[in-house]
Design brief:
Blueprint lengths: L4 E2 L5 E4 L18 E8 L2 E6 L2 E9 L3 E3 L2 E4 L6 E4 L3 H22 L3 H23 L4 H21 L7 E2 L2 E2 L7 H16 L6 E12 L6 E10 L4 E2 L4 E5 L15 E8 L7 E11 L14 E11 L1 H5 L6 E4 L1 E3 L8 H7 L5 E3 L5 E10 L2 H7 L1 H6 L2 E3 L15 E11 L11 E8 L21 E3 L10 E8 L3 H4 L3 E9 L7 E10 L11 E6 L1 E2 L9 H5 L13 H5 L3 E10 L6 H7 L8 H7 L5 H6 L1 H14 L1 H19 L8 H11 L5 H15 L7 H8 L1 H19 L4 H20 L9 H10 L4 H4 L5 H13 L10 H15 L1 H4 L1 H20 L4 H17 L5 H24 L9 H21 L2 H10 L3 H19 L9 H25 L7 H15 L11 H10 L3 H16 L11 H8 L4 H7 L1 H14 L3 H16 L5 H14 L6 H24 L6 H19 L2 H17 L3 H13 L7 E2 L8 E2 H18 L3 H17 ...
Parallel strand pairs: 15-22, 36-37
Antiparallel strand pairs: 1-3, 2-3, 2-6, 3-4, 4-5, 7-8, 9-10, 11-15, 11-21, 12-13, 12-14, 12-16, 16-17, 18-21, 19-20, 23-26, 23-31, 24-25, 24-27, 27-28, 28-30, 29-31, 32-33, 34-35, 34-37, 35-40, 37-38, 38-39, 39-40
Helix pairs in contact: 1-2, 1-3, 2-3, 4-30, 12-13, 15-16, 18-20, 18-21, 19-22, 21-24, 22-25, 24-27, 25-28, 27-29, 28-30, 29-30, 29-32, 32-33, 32-34, 33-36, 34-36, 34-37, 36-38, 37-38, 37-40, 40-42, 41-42, 42-43, 43-44, 44-45, 45-46, 46-47, 47-48, 53-54, 53-57, 54-57, 54-58, 57-58
Length: 1958
């Protein structure tokens, strides 16, 4: 068996193909992965992928491409570094990072950046291939790398990645360079990215495309030039393009003849008044319109002109062609000025050549020097482009530039007629001739773009003897030909006759150089026109060169030529680097020929133009030193002055490029070996004269040239020593020492009033550092360093702040530090002390900080580069500058920022420089330096100040704004240095500031720094990419863990001093533990145990720790910190820590509380994420709000979350819930004048004012939510307060608002919502939902299907359960989400309003669905054997009653189910309920028909048809068959009463149907009479089947007891007094009487759940008796799940279809086919729910009130169990024969305010109920259960409850609980009870006694009016009438009794009242 062998060289490779790793121990690989190999065996490697080093395995060798690499730390922890080019490495890693981010761009739909990055990535890959091939030249490789890095930087910037510091295109290792150098690189790249360097050189590219015109036909010449309209002169040569007859370039294949580059334009040339001028000349006949004749002579004639401003090109798109308008001259003689006229818009002198004439030109401005353009626009220069120069030299003259161009402008001429009647047509021909009279071939250049010619012809102006041409030509004549050459101008008249002759009539000439060697001077020259004939011989130029040519130079006796009127003007301009027009320069250069002129020539040198001097720089210097060598005694001073003048001239920006020329001259051409003596002597003479000189200007010029004077001195001495073998060395050294002594003396002087020498000193110091290098050529390093040290040391230290010497001293130090002298360690130790002394002085005074920072940067950068041990230098710098550097940083960071935005970068730069210097210095410090530093502090106070300063500075360095966002490298280096320094200083902290020397401030600063350090964003590795995280961990490790361990160590050392940091450090330490780093959490969490322990020792508890933990957790977790892992870790670590503590129990309680708070805060944070639905947000907020109140007793946090919940409700438009929410805060306030502080959005105000504001806001939201009944109570309460203050204005408004609410109740329609039970099962739900069930109040028009879909949308991963059974434990514990949803019906606590006659439907509709605690759901099932013939025998109903923790509506749209009760309803009881409900429905419809509340009779018709038809076809017969059979009666003797009750109900139904048919007969329309007759006939059959005598009366004949039908209970019994009999099916058991409430406390009417059991029989027949959704919802009746449908298929009207069965709303298992819609229905608001009653206007039938009787109220037996109570029915107490005297009068449904009866305290309670008082129990609100959803429904649902229902009768509908489900009406506890009222004994406690009244319930408020003393003289009459206005608000209302829920439910923790500040 072969062994695995460690690899030696095969260490690093790239995967060539993907490997699945299916073999044993195989490592899966993906193509492109980089792998490191550890071992090898028979074609297999063992290793790991670099991106996941923890996973090791084997893979085939053939899959790997090996690459060279270096190995670091060879062995177990070896690292592999590829040896490839660093740019390649960076490209590879960067592209990998980009790949993942690039895909995310697609996901985020950032298409533009996605595609741009795709192209850049492909481009980089292509360039990478070129680099890897290795075939590129050095220059090309450099360009490619530059291109790559530019693309990498662009991509990083676009993707918000880090800025990469680079040097020569390669990434730098921050550990290998100084921090100051790293900062400089980062700053350079940052500034380069932000502010590109301004370019001073510009170029204009011109491409002539075509001339578009309709009247062409002749060739054209186009001239471009740049024109300065301000100076009225051209700035450039001309660019010349020839066009053919079609207006296109004549030579299209030669691009250099179509394109040009106007070069060397300065920034000052890009002005608005600088133009591109185009002149167009045609070649053809004299007149453009002349007919073609035999004349073949062609003339150059003006055609047109165009102009465009250069400034327009700065903003124009460079890619677009420009179409220039072409203008023609109105008067040909003004052609030379046409461009000026166009620019100045002198319209009368030119006109547009044609609307369709235009010049198509491409114009583009390019920026940068010409070499840069050649690189960037290589194709442009490769293709060919002509260069058009500026006239004259450019702004910067480069040495070596060779030019000898003579520019001649033909200005104008004056000519005589010459004997002709009209003026001449003059053409000028120009020739350049040499000294021999030969024409110079090709040296007459018309312009760039076309080659030069032998001659040039001007254009011809028609009949003009005074022509003006202004044509420019260039004569590039070589220098050697220039002498003796001349230019000849020949003048010809161009005849317009047939022959078209050109007749010569004169000429002019001008020589180019004078006899003394000077060239033709620049300027305008008037030349003599010499007459001649056509046959004159001008070839012999010697004949005419002797003639005069200048008219101004004619001798006085030559009157002939002087008197002539003919002249010719030209302007010449020479641009030459070799020829001069200056005679003084020629005299100096020829000094040997005229020795007597030397003195004058030297004096005049300063007056010569600088461009002339630099032309002849070398010759001039040779002349000066030649004169000095030969006549040093006589001319030494003047030669020295001339030399100074030349040196200073070259320092001018225009000639600074000639400095290298002088350097070259000194090194290679200078030969003055004896000059050094004279130069030293004159220089010392000048320095010595500084003290006495009156004027310092000339001396300053001398000192300004010190650098080059020393260069000449040193070079001269070197030449002398070389020539003489080093003679006179001592003499030279002595002279130099004397010179430096004079300099030091001069520098040590201070200003003496009238002779300020500081400026002179400043001038010398500016140039002094440049001398160091020259001195080193002849002196040793130590000698030069001594010179410099003594010189710098002689500078006076104390000077005024505005003295120019201050800045120059620092500048001199900068140059010194940057010099070669300082680089040498031997000299640096000599210079360092004096430099540090000056630096310390400046930094202490905070002066010139920019320069100080620069000096420090240079010094510290050098320490890193130096290979020697810099220990001593570091010690010197630390001793001198560390403390002052810290103070400086504190000063500049705390300095207010300047107002001007331009100053900000400078301040920031200085800060960054100093920060880099501090970091570099700290990085250089070792153990020894820290030890010496700490030993230098003489006292503890000094050490304390130092530690405070450095900790403060470190906190500043950690600030996010200290460095740019993408400077991650700099931040990591900073943090590494900080943590290293802190580790050193922590020892000093322990040794010097513990025990009796404890200093809280220092320790607090230390802990604050540590906490801020750990929480930095740049250290949160979890947020970085895997590659970035890996690099950071490899280089620095996780610095957070290191700092956390240090915190823990320091904390353990504190001992009893820990108490000083409790509770102050709880918040910061908690923030640290929330960082998602497991090791850090494990280290830091135990500190909380320590804090609890010490707090327990001090106080006996740890309330402070608990309070602080809870307060900080909320704010920190809301910021996104913490996670579920932290919650578990916090819990487990602390529980383990406190196991053995004596205070273990209280500790466990605290930990549990904090853990539960974390659960809710995490849920809250998750729900508040963007994109989450409002329902989750609201539900989670409610859960958290409840927790803060009931468990934590944190009132301020409680109130904050009240307002957060309020805002969420407003956003979701849940206005009713918003009102209830704000009531929570309102309940905490009293009507008092206590001042409240400013809080949230509330200003500082009194408690009364805030409560008033809250009331008004709540009223507004109740109004918007259409909850006007609740608003009425608040109106009354607020009105009482206004009344007590006699604020009648607001009282009036409040009464009007109250009245408006009453109007809205009666006039506006309100939709009744559906209610749904929702179960959330599974561990994937949030804590506040997990494994809980809720009842939710649906949105308007929202039915079960829509609600279920909404819930599934909110929880997209949830699974909808398809059954209504309770889930088992597997569902509870599943790692999934299960939703169980079905509809439930509300069970109102009181039926008083709902059963009262005469109450409007709009009023009842409110009480049906508001203040509901209990909800019901029925599920039918068969028990025992199912009878297929009659399923009613075994059809039972499982009835589930859900009790909520709070009633709906409330602060949420849903609440948690607190208790569920399950009872079974027998088939007989089910039948009784069904028939009872159908009877009630019939009564309601008959009543509506009688009272004309029904718009049409169709509903009654359909209901009658459904009941009668079903009964005829066997509906009631099935009941008889099932329950009246002898077998059933014998087997169920206990059901005798129920069977009797069923029989009574069946007979009752028959009587009601009989009366209904009578009513129907009265109102039925004529076309429905046949149907009515059919119903009557079928009714006869029904009664006969029941054995009832058949009698159908007319309405008048009908018995009175039927017409005066009373209000019935749902079980058919009469209602006696105010107390109703309970339903026999009540889940609670027997009857109970609940105190009547105020309007807001009325329970709503029953909303019934719907479920269904479908059978074959139910599909065949209709229902006999139906069950309405509520007592008034006739049109929403749905079949019950408890029975099968027994009605006939023909029972319903053909135009009415059955609606969605209630089972579909209550049971999720029904198929969609049973869901239907219903039409022809009335509005739900038109449906009253009272029973049948007579016409109230009939006095004979009016009901007489009777006192309540005990016999009418069935009682509960406490000995009977609840199910038994439910099953046993009470005997029927209602029949068709019941007397009218059994019914009471009814009171108003909405209780008014009690009237005054003599005194405010006395009210007639028996007449009307009074508003309930506010509950004083404000601190006992139970928890509020949140809602899972709050989204508004988006539209109407098809199966709306308004449109759903069944009109079939009787048995089918068990889905809705009957009105008999109400548990009874509530009695109001009166102040004065009725004398005849009967005391009712309760067998079971009142339902709601166990519920603490919610703080948001309006009906249980305590509403005291303020006690106001009765005004004197005002008595209260004991009258029952209302008191006179104003009322006397001195009586506070008594609080009324509030029904309470049983006490066996847990009470919430009370919240102590402390609202005075909130």
């Amino acid at each position: 068996m072969n062994m695995w062998i460690p690899t030696e060289h095969e260490k690093y490779g790239v995967v060539l193909a993907s490997f699945r790793g299916t073999v044993q121990h195989g490592l899966p690989l993906e193509i492109g992965d980089t792998v490191q190999m550890l071992e090898k065996c028979e074609g297999w490697y063992r290793g790991f992928v670099l991106k996941n080093p923890n996973s090791k395995g084997i893979f085939p060798c053939s899959y790997i491409h090996l690459k060279n690499a270096h190995i670091k730390n060879k062995g177990q922890f070896e690292m592999v570094v590829p040896t490839e080019d660093s740019v390649i490495t960076e490209m590879t890693s960067t592209l990998r990072d980009w790949g993942a981010m690039w895909k995310q761009l697609y996901v985020k739909n950032e298409g533009d950046l996605f595609h741009r990055l795709w192209h850049v990535m492909n481009e980089i890959l292509d360039l990478r291939r070129q680099v890897l091939v290795g075939h590129l030249t050095h220059d090309r490789m450099r360009d490619v790398k530059q291109h790559i890095t530019a693309r990498l930087d662009w991509g990083n910037e676009q993707l918000c990645l880090d800025l990469v510091p680079r040097k020569e295109f390669s990434m730098v290792d921050p550990e290998e360079i100084s921090v100051t150098e790293l900062y400089r690189l980062m700053e350079h790249r940052h500034r380069k990215k932000e502010t590109p360097t301004p370019v001073s050189t510009h170029h204009l590219f011109v491409h002539m495309k075509s001339l578009m015109s309709s009247n062409l036909g002749e060739e054209l010449e186009v001239f471009f030039f740049i024109y300065d309209s301000r100076e009225n002169k051209p700035l450039s040569e001309r660019f010349f393009v020839k066009l053919n007859k079609n207006g296109l370039p004549k030579y299209p294949d030669k691009s250099e003849r179509q394109c040009t580059l106007f070069v060397d334009l300065g920034s000052g040339d890009l002005r608005k008044d600088v133009y591109i001028v185009v002149h167009i000349i045609r070649i053809g006949r004299m007149g453009a319109g002349e007919k073609k004749n035999t004349c073949n002579v062609q003339y150059r004639r003006p055609f047109g002109c165009a102009v465009v401003s250069i400034a327009d090109l700065l903003t124009a798109d460079s890619k677009d062609d420009h179409l220039l308008k072409v203008y023609a001259c109105n008067t040909e003689s003004e052609w030379s000025q046409i461009h000026d006229n166009i620019i100045k818009k002198v319209n009368i002198r030119y006109n547009l050549l044609g609307s369709n004439t235009g010049l198509a030109v491409a114009l583009q401005l390019l920026h940068g020097d010409i070499d840069q353009l050649r690189r960037e626009y290589m194709i442009l220069f490769t293709r060919g482009v002509s260069i058009t120069r500026k006239l004259g030299f450019s702004d910067v003259i480069m040495p070596g530039e060779m030019r000898n161009d003579l520019y001649i402008t033909l200005e104008k001429g004056e000519f005589e007629k010459g004997g002709k009647s009209v003026a001449r047509n003059v053409e000028v021909t120009i020739y350049a001739l040499d000294a021999d009279g030969q024409i110079l071939k090709g040296f007459v250049a018309t312009g760039s773009g076309e080659p030069g010619g032998d001659e040039y012809h001007t254009f011809v102006l028609y009949h003009n003897n005074s022509p003006r041409w202004a044509e420019l030509i260039k004569l590039p004549i070589p220098v050697d030909v220039f002498r003796g050459s001349h230019v000849r101008f020949e003048f010809r008249h161009c005849s317009t006759k047939d022959k078209g002759e050109k007749k010569l009539f004169g000429f002019s000439f001008v020589p180019l150089m004078q006899e003394d060697g000077r060239t033709l001077p620049d300027g305008t020259h008037e030349l003599i026109v010499h007459k001649c004939e056509e046959n004159a011989n001008l070839q012999d130029c010697a004949r005419y060169l002797k003639l005069h040519f200048y008219k101004c130079n004619l001798p006085g006796n030559n009157q002939t030529l002087k008197g002539t009127k003919e002249s010719f003007w030209i302007t010449s301009f020479l641009c030459s680097t070799k020829l001069t027009q200056n005679g003084d320069m020629l005299d100096l250069l020829k000094w040997r020929a005229h020795p007597e002129r030397i003195s004058d020539s030297l004096s005049k040198l300063k007056e010569i133009d600088g461009s002339e001097i630099v032309k002849f720089l070398q010759d001039t210097l040779d002349t000066l030193f030649g004169i000095l060598d030969e006549s040093s005694q006589k001319y030494a001073l003047k030669v020295f002055d001339c030399l100074v003048h030349i040196i200073n001239l070259l320092q001018d920006s225009k000639f600074q490029h000639f400095m290298p020329v002088m350097d070259t001259y000194i090194e290679g051409h200078f030969a003055g070996a004896l000059s050094y003596r004279d130069l030293i002597k004159v220089l010392k003479w000048y320095v010595d004269r500084i003290i006495d000189a009156e004027r310092q200007e000339h001396i300053r010029q001398v000192l300004k040239a010190t650098e080059y004077i020393f260069k000449y001195i040193i070079q001269s001495r070197r030449l002398f020593a070389l020539a003489t073998g080093g003679q006179n060395e001592e003499e030279f050294r002595c002279c130099m020492h004397e010179l430096f002594m004079s300099i030091r003396f001069f520098l040590s002087l201070e200003d003496k009033g009238s002779r300020p020498i500081t400026q002179t000193q400043a001038v010398f110091l500016q140039s002094f550092p440049a001398v160091y290098g020259e001195l080193l050529k002849l002196f040793t390093v130590r000698e030069v360093a001594t010179f410099v040290r003594e010189t710098l040391g002689s500078i006076p230290t104390a000077s005024q702040s505005d003295c120019p010497l201050e800045a120059v001293k620092l500048h001199c130090i900068v140059k010194t530090v940057e010099s070669e002298l300082y680089t040498n360690p031997e000299s640096r130790c000599i210079l360092l002390p004096v430099i540090l002394r000056l630096m310390q002085a400046y930094m202490q005074e905070q002066k010139d900080l920019v320069m100080c920072a620069h000096i420090l940067t240079c010094m510290l950068s050098l320490l890193k580069k130096d290979e020697t041990d810099p220990s001593e230098e570091v010690n010197l710098i630390v001793e001198s500058l560390l403390v002052v550097l810290l103070r400086t940083l504190l000063e500049i960071t705390n300095r207010p920022q300047p107002a001007a935005p331009t100053l900000r970068p400078q301040v920031q730069d200085v800060t960054g420089e100093f920060v880099a210097c501090l970091l570099a210095l700290l990085r250089q410090m070792k153990d020894l330096h820290y030890m010496q530093l700490l030993q230098r502090f003489s006292s503890k106070d000094d050490l304390r100040d130092f530690l405070l300063h450095i900790f403060t500075v470190f906190r500043i360095l950690i600030r996010p704004e200290m460095f740019s966002k993408d400077w991650a490298v700099m931040r990591l280096v900073t943090n590494n240095i900080i943590i290293t320094t802190v580790l050193y200083l922590s020892d000093a902290l322990r040794k010097n500031f513990l025990n009796d020397k404890f200093d809280y401030k220092v320790w607090d600063s230390y802990f604050c720094l540590s906490v801020i350090f750990i929480n930095q964003p740049c250290l949160q590795l979890e947020t970085f990419s895997a590659s970035k995280k890996k690099k950071i961990l490899e280089k620095y490790g996780d610095m957070r863990v290191m700092m956390g361990c240090e915190i823990f160590s320091m904390w353990q050392n504190l001992g009893e001093h820990k108490l000083n940091f409790i509770p102050a450090m709880i918040g910061p330490f908690l923030e640290v533990t929330l960082v998602p780093q497991p090791d850090l959490r494990n280290v830091m969490i135990p500190i909380f145990h320590d804090m609890m322990d010490w707090e327990q020792r001090r106080s006996g508890n740890f309330k402070q720790v608990e309070a602080k933990l809870i307060d900080k957790l909320d704010s920190l977790m809301s910021e996104g910190k913490g996670d579920e892992t932290y919650r578990e870790l916090f819990n487990s670590i602390l529980l383990k820590k406190i196991e053995r503590e004596t205070w273990r129990e209280s500790g466990i309680s605290l930990i549990a509380t904090v853990t539960r708070l974390m659960e809710r805060l995490l849920d809250y944070r998750d729900c508040m994420k963007v994109g989450e639905v409002d329902g989750k947000k609201i539900g989670c907020t409610v859960s958290l709000l409840n927790f803060y109140k009931t468990e934590l007793n944190k009132e301020e946090m409680y109130i904050r979350y009240i307002h957060k919940l309020y805002e969420l409700h407003l956003k979701a438009q849940n206005y009713t819930e918003a009102s209830y929410t704000l009531l929570l805060y309102d309940e905490l306030l009293e009507w008092s004048e206590r001042p409240l502080r400013e809080f949230l959005n509330y200003p500082m105000q009194s408690e009364w004012q805030r409560k008033e504001h809250l009331h008004l806001t709540i009223l507004q939201n109740f109004d918007r939510g259409k909850c006007w009944e609740n608003g009425i109570i608040l109106c009354r309460e607020l009105a009482d307060q206004y009344e007590s203050y006699y604020d009648y204005r607001n009282l009036s408004k409040m009464r009007m608002m109250e009245a408006s609410f009453y109007d809205k109740i009666m006039d506006q329609q309100r939709l009744e919502p559906e209610f749904f039970r929702v179960g959330f099962y599974g561990k994937k739900f949030p804590f506040f939902l997990r494994n809980k069930e809720f009842v939710c109040r649906g949105h308007d028009y929202e039915r079960l299907e829509a609600f279920q879909q909404r819930m599934l949308n909110e929880f997209p991963h949830a699974i909808a359960m398809q059954h209504a059974n309770q889930p088992d434990q597997t569902i509870y514990q599943a790692d999934a989400q299960y939703l169980q949803i079905y509809a439930v019906a509300p069970i109102p606590d009181s039926q008083d309003v709902l059963q009262r006659d005469g109450v409007h439907d709009n009023i009842k509709s409110f009480y049906k669905v508001n203040h509901i605690w209990r909800y019901r759901y029925d599920r039918p099932f068969h028990k025992g054997t199912k009878d297929k013939e009659n399923e009613f025998k075994s059809l039972w109903v499982e009835r589930t009653t859900l009790t909520l923790v709070q009633s709906l509506p409330g602060i949420s749209r849903w609440f948690e189910v607190e208790r569920r009760e399950l009872v079974e309803v027998s088939p007989l009881e089910n039948a009784i309920e069904v028939i009872e409900n159908k009877n009630l429905q019939l009564r309601t419809l008959i009543t509506q028909c009688q009272t004309r509340q029904m718009q049409n009779i169709n509903p009654l018709t359909m209901c009658l048809n459904g009941v009668i038809d079903a009964a005829v076809n066997g509906g009631l017969a099935r009941y008889q068959e099932a329950f009246f059979a002898k077998d059933y009666i014998m087997n169920h003797p206990e059901d005798g009463d129920k069977i009797g009750r069923l029989r009574e109900l069946m007979f009752e139904q028959a009587h009601i149907l009989e009366f209904g048919l009578t009513v129907h007969d009265k109102f039925v329309p004529q076309d429905m009479r046949p149907l009515h007759k059919k119903l009557v006939d079928q009714f006869h059959l029904m009664k006969s089947s029941l054995g009832i005598q058949c009698n159908v009366y007319s309405l008048k004949e009908f018995p009175a007891y039927m017409r005066a039908s009373p209000t019935h209970f749902t079980n058919g019994s009469t209602r006696g007094g105010r107390n109703s009999a309970p339903n026999i099916m009540n889940p609670e058991g027997g009857g109970r009487v609940v105190a009547r409430r105020s309007p807001l406390s009325y329970p709503a009417a029953n909303r019934y759940s719907s479920s269904s059991l479908s059978s074959q029989a139910s599909n065949e027949v209709s229902n006999i008796t139906g069950q309405s959704e509520s007592s008034d919802e006739v049109f929403n009746m749905q079949p019950s799940p408890s029975t099968s449908s027994l009605s006939s298929n023909h029972s319903a009207s053909p135009n009415v279809t059955s609606s969605a069965p209630s089972s579909t709303r209550g049971s999720p298992q029904l198929p969609d086919k049973q869901k239907h819609t219903r039409e022809n229905c009335l509005s739900p608001r038109d449906r009253p729910c009272s029973a049948v009653y007579p016409n109230p206007l009939d006095p004979t039938l009016r009901a007489v009130p009777q006192p309540p009787s005990d016999s009418s109220l069935p009682r509960s037996d406490p000995s009977i169990s609840t199910p038994d109570k439910v099953v046993k029915p009470a005997p029927s107490s209602w029949s068709l024969d019941t007397s009218l005297s059994d019914f009471n009068g009814k009171g108003p449904p909405i209780p008014p305010r009690p009237p005054y009866t003599g005194s405010p305290a006395r009210t007639t309670r028996s007449q009307s109920p009074v508003i309930s008082s506010r509950s004083p129990q404000k601190n006992s609100a139970p928890p509020f259960t949140p809602s899972p959803t709050e989204c508004q429904s988006t539209g109407l649902v098809s199966n709306s409850p308004v449109l759903s229902g069944s009109y079939s009768s009787g048995i089918s509908s068990l889905s809705r609980c009957s009105v008999s489900e109400a548990s009874g009406t509530e009695n109001t506890p009166w102040d004065h009870p009725f004398p005849n009222s009967t005391s009712i004994g309760f067998d079971e406690p009142i339902r709601r006694e166990n519920k603490t009244p919610p703080p948001y319930s309006i009906h249980d408020r305590n509403n005291p009016r303020r006690p106001v003393p009765i005004p004197p003289g005002l008595s209260i009459l004991p009258s029952i009438d209302a008191p006179p206005v104003p009322p006397k608000p001195h009586q506070i209302r008594k609080p009324e009794m509030e029904p309470r829920r049983p006490d066996h439910f847990p009470r919430p923790r009370p919240l102590p009242r402390k609202v005075s500040q909130l």
